[in-house]
Amino acid sequence: MIALRYLRAKRKEASVSLISVISLVGIALGVAALIIVMSVMGGFRTEFIKSLLGFNGHVTVQAVGRPLMNYDAVAARLRTVPGVTRVAPIIDGQVMATAYGVNTGIIARGVRRNDLATLKSVADSLTPGGLNRFAADSVIIGRGLADKFQVRVGDSITLISPRGDETPFGTTLRSKAYTVAGIYKVGNTLYDSNFAFMPLDEAQAFFNCDASVTAIEVMLASPENNMGLLPQLAGAAGAGTRLVPWQNINAGFLEVVNLERNVMGLILSLIIGVAALNIISGLYMLVSDKSADIAILRTMGASRGAIMRVFLIAGMSIGIAGTLLGLLLGVVFCLNIEGIRQGLQFVLGVKLFDDNFYFLARMPAELDVMEVVFVTLLALGLSFIATIYPSWRAARLDPVEALRYE
Fold first, then answer.
1. With bands split at pLDDT 50, 70 and 90, how would you rate the model's confidence at 256?
2. CA 162 to the chain's CA centroid
3. CA separation for the pair 35, 375 (Å, rounded)
């Protein structure tokens, strides 16, 4: 009762009340910002890995120092390993794509129609009839690439490969026009704007691969947990091959994302620390203003522990209220982050989330219960620590000295 009464400052103690409000708002903003940033960074990592694992193989089988010739036999053995859900021989090659005067470098991937049908991220987002038209002299491209070229299904694009024919004058470029059989959209602009699929036998002829492939893609039931299958997969692939898991291919990116997430969390934690310092200054001013009250309470029999509890409760009331407000604000913001982003973009006229840079079509946010609990406990812990010393000083106040000039 006494603690809450002290927080309801009178007119002459308005500065104490103002500092308390600033402290509460500071803690709320710090908690909300930390929850939002941690959720966005976690959502970005999750969404990118989801799109990555849904588009590329979880384990890539390659031949060492030579083309992979007997790929059908190797693929058949890999399919027998428990936990393997998809096996597909592929040919990857860098080409120049051009249409209507627009040129860009892309990756052309040769794959069989049946294998492409099992690639759910592409097959499920493909324009109707795309797989049926996927035959010789046709390609399937991403939505970003189609928009860049301004082409539709049935239009033609030209692919140019440096792996051409050998002539007495050197290697000539190979150029061929292909009909767009279908357009897919997986939601990751890295793939929607930079990949085109062509039939495997067409890719073998286009890239001069004869009867070989560049790799075999293997997908697992649980790609983040089934890396223990690598020895079995290596045994099935046979001698002369090497296995490259998806973590190795994307190790640099994952490390950068984790580092940014940790650094941003540390930096934003300082906001809560600054708000906790405001609690210290506010309680110091409150102790100074209430020194006579403290002395009277002591003379009436209040113990030092009782005085200390009064100011601990006063400081923690600010910390708890600010933490709960920030928790509510952060959770609501994360649950509606895409709508808020769209609204801010409309009002400000500024693009707040460039999908060409972040490779995602929408801003992700993933609330992690353990992270939210950690942020909440961090804010409450810092608030409690901030109240200890001012409360101790209030409890140590000498009643005689406090009342000497009253």
1. confident
2. 36
3. 7
Mean pLDDT of 143-172: 81
| Residue from 406, 399, 404 nearest 300 by CA | 399
Alpha-carbon distance 144 to 151, whole Å? Answer: 11
Q: How many Cα atoms are found within 13 Å in the side-chain-facing hemisphere of 242?
A: 8
Residue linked to tokens 């058949």: 76
Nearest Cα to Cα of residue 372 among 362, 363, 360, 380: 380
Among the ranges given (118-122, 371-375, 391-395), the one the predictor scored with the smallest mean pLDDT: 391-395
Tell me the three-class secondary structure of the chain, residue by residue: CHHHHHHCCCHHHHHHHHHHHHHHHHHHHHHHHHHHHHHHHHHHHHHHHHHHHHHCCCEEEEECCCCECCHHHHHHHHHCCCCEEEEEEEEEEEEEEEECCEEEEEEEEEECHHHHHCCHHHHCCCCCCCCCCCCCCEEEEEHHHHHHHCCCCCCEEEEEECCCCEECCEECCEEEEEEEEEEECCCEHHHHCCEEEEEHHHHHHHCCCCCCECEEEEEECCCCCCHHHHHHHHHHHCCCEEEEEHHHHCHHHHHHHHHHHHHHHHHHHHHHHHHHHHHHHHHHHHHHHCHHHHHHHHHCCCCHHHHHHHHHHHHHHHHHHHHHHHHHHHHHHHHCHHHHHHHHHHHHCCCCCCHHHHCECCCCCCCCHHHHHHHHHHHHHHHHHHHHHHHHHHHCCCHHHHHCCC
Q: Inter-axis angle of helices 291-299 and 251-289, to 10 degrees? A: 70
For residue 207, the model assigns a pLDDT of 87
The average pLDDT across 152-179 equals 79
**244 bridge partner residues:** 60
Q: Give ∠ CA 365-371-373 in degrees, rounded to 5.
A: 125
Mean pLDDT of 30-39: 86
User: Helix 304-335 vs helix 14-55: angle between axes, to the nearest 10 degrees?
Assistant: 40
Residue 176 makes CB contacts below 8 A (sequence gap 6+) with: 137, 158, 159, 206
Q: Band the pLDDT of 400: cuts 50, 70, 90.
A: low
For tokens 């470029």, name the residue.
Answer: 173
pLDDT of 286 above 80: no
Q: Scanning the structure block, which residue is given the tokens 């797989």?
A: 131
Summarize pLDDT for 184-239 with one digit per residue, the tens.
988 777 888 889 999 999 998 888 888 889 999 999 888 777 677 888 888 888 88
